[in-house]
Amino acid sequence: MSTKSLFSKKNIESQQLDTHRGLLEELNLPPGLIAFIRKNSRNLQIGLICVVLVILSFVFYNYYS
Q1: 45 is in which domain, residue-wise?
Q2: Res. 20: pLDDT tops 90
Q3: This prediction's pTM
């Protein structure tokens, strides 16, 4: 058996696990945008909730009237 197997204990221990890889990295977003989203995540969530509430209130008001 070859000593250069991908599943050998020495090879597995030498690899560093990337523990900070998340959904934003999987979407291949630029690092600057990822940093901006992480820094302003609370403000972005509040803004998104406000936009959804405005849209829903407009739709339900038109349905009511």
Answers
A1: 26-65
A2: no
A3: 0.60
